[in-house]
Structures are given as C-alpha cells and as structure tokens.
Amino acid sequence: MLVGTWASRGADDLTTTSAPPVPESGAELTKEEQANGQATAPARRRKPSNRSRLKLRETLGGAISPKSVASSGTGLVLAQNMMYRHSVTVYNSRTLKMKKTISDTVTLSDFGYKRYSGTSQGAPVEAAFSPDGKYAYVSNYSMYGEGFGPEGDDECTPSSGYDDSFVYRISLETLEIDDAYRVGAVPKVVTVTPDGRFVLVANWCTWDLSVISTRAGREVRRIPMGRYPRGIVVSPRGNAAYVAIMGGNYLVRVDLRTWTTSSIPIGSGPRALEIDPSGRRIYATLNAAGQVARLDLRTRRVTTVSTGTLPRSLAIADDAKAIYVVNYESGTVSKLRTSDLKILQTVSACYHPIGIAYDRPTRRVWVACYGGSIQVFDDR
C-alpha cells in the first residue's frame, strides 16, 4: 500500500480556458476515441466513487500465481507470486501490458549478509512503495537456499524455529532488486511511513513488527505484537501505525515517536487494513466473521457489515468515498460506501480472489486471483 493523500475533484475544480482542455486525470482514451477528436473534448466530471460502478475490463494470465497486487500510483502495478513462481511481475497500469518478470533469486552476500553463500530464493508475498516513487519493498514469506531451514508455515509460534526472512528493495527505475533487509519469520504485510524513513513489516511467525530504517539500510528494532500480526496502516500525519492482530480481536497502535504500543478492540480476526485520509477511520476485514469493520478512532465505535465468505484484502478509492473487498470463498468483489458501509455493488470475480489494489491514475481495481490470474476492473 502506498501511504499518501487522496485527492477528490468537485464542481469548483473545473475551469474554462481558451486552450484545448486536457482529459481528466485517470480517463484513458482509446485509439478510436482519439481519432474521433475526444482527446480535445471538454473534460468530463468524474463520478464520485460511491456513484461509479465496477466493470470487468480484462483478465491477465501467464506464469503467475499472485498472492497480492500493489499499485505504485505512478503507472506500475506489481504482482507478488510467492514460492509458486518465485517472481514479481510488473505491469503498465494503463496499457495492462507486462513490463517485466523479476526473479526472486538474489546473492545475499552482495547486500552484506556474508553468512549466506551462493544464491538464495524468496517467496514474494506483499509490496509497498516509497513516497517518492523510487522503490518498492517486497516481503518474502520464506527463503530458500544454503543457510535456510524448513519452509515457513501459517501455523506457527515464535518457538517454531523458522528462519528469519528478508524484505527486498526493488528500484522502480531499473526494475531490479538492489537491496535486502533481514526481518522476522514469515513476514507478510509491509508498508512505508509517509516521510519514507521507516519500512514496517508484520512478522507472522515471530509475532512482532520489524522496523527498517531506510537511512541505516537495516532493521533497527522489533516490537512485540501478539499472535499473527498482519495488516498495517500508518496515519497520514505519520505519528502512529496500526497493526491487525489476526489471532485476536484487536489492533496494536504503535507510537512512531516513542515506539510504545497500546491495543484497540475491533472484532475477531482482523486481517487487512485501510485508513482514510483524515486519519480518523480505519477499515478492516474480519476474516472468520465474513465482515468488514469500520473503526472510528475518536469514539472507538466499531460498525460492521457482512460482505461474503472469508473477506481478505481491501482497498480504498482515491476520493475515499468507497472501499473494495475481495471475498475469498465467495469468489466476489464487494464495493462499499465508506459513509455508512452500505454495499453498493457485488460482482463475480475469479476463483479465490485474495489481493486487491486501487490504481489512482486510471481509477481501476486490480484483483489477484490465487489460481493464476489477475482481473482488472474499470470503476466509472
């Protein structure tokens, strides 16, 4: 998830000039539309996301098994293909064409980890982007090669003995892995603070949060979390992070100045998180309950709605008026209005949709299908 701000356009944002108007941001024109002169037609006012509707645009296949998809907000979408493909695939978010397949094979000694000889492989699971758009940070579920023991597992405790894993840094200019950082066992969700100083990583099996300093180029602390930490969001001000504890019924709030923690009840089994641009409300999937929850951080009031069986990941629209949720066992995507959690639309997706991302430049929703495809929906 890219941490940043969301922009909305109102009626007062449109101005008239003598120069030919430019099409609205995110409104892609086809060759036929351009040929018909629509490239210089007056800009259409964008519908708010709570009034637009999802429509399947394309299904992407190939040598992929995506656990997650993530939008850079600058024209790229990355799919993390776990140990099934040992790769990250990179797509142009406008043309929907694959730009590159990045192998997860690295020589860790090149990044200062001399104890690992030869090459190692990872298992890319989640990704997040630096605020300046230069880098992607990708967590690896497990590592493979000399010096690494058994593959990680979802059923584990800190005493299970699984090896620490690594987060890769990918240059978005070269689309190559240019650094690696050692973190805890079976890292999953990763995010970056708004100032770009820290990368936060939820370590599933060591039940803690790794804090990577981008200045120091290494992990600088680990913070105990509780049983099975997963989703992470950071407040827009950058003063606090919130971590979903999937083995419990609460979030852990981390003060990013003092590194102290406190807990906030939200409901059973919180998995994925999003935060609105005001920093007041957090949205969470409650996986086992089949619900989406909205937490008001001021009042601590929690509102819930049922969306489908095993809701997994979620994403928020650029104007923060709608959120999108993938329901793993139901094979659907639900679109909810953020103001009251009303379900606006439920569309059939693929078998086992597991990851979702909102691409702001195009207003498209990308869905990772664990069976080996990606579905792209227009939201207009």
In words, what does this structure look like?
Helix content is 2%, strand content 44%. By secondary structure, the chain is mainly beta. It has helices spanning 31-35, 82-85; strands spanning 54-60, 68-71, 76-80, 87-92, 98-103, 124-129, 135-140, 166-171, 176-182, 187-192, 198-203, 208-213, 218-224, 229-234, 240-245, 250-255, 261-265, 270-275, 281-286, 291-296, 302-306, 311-316, 322-327, 332-337, 343-348, 353-359, 364-369, 373-379. The chain has a four-stranded antiparallel β-sheet, with no helix packed on it. A four-stranded antiparallel β-sheet has the order 2-3-4-5. Residues 1-43 have low confidence and may be disordered.
Topology diagram in text:
Blueprint: H1 31-35, E1 54-60, E2 68-71, E3 76-80, H2 82-85, E4 87-92, E5 98-103, E6 124-129, E7 135-140, E8 166-171, E9 176-182, E10 187-192, E11 198-203, E12 208-213, E13 218-224, E14 229-234, E15 240-245, E16 250-255, E17 261-265, E18 270-275, E19 281-286, E20 291-296, E21 302-306, E22 311-316, E23 322-327, E24 332-337, E25 343-348, E26 353-359, E27 364-369, E28 373-379
Antiparallel strand pairs: 1-28, 2-3, 3-4, 4-5, 6-7, 7-8, 8-9, 10-11, 11-12, 12-13, 14-15, 15-16, 16-17, 18-19, 19-20, 20-21, 22-23, 23-24, 24-25, 26-27, 27-28
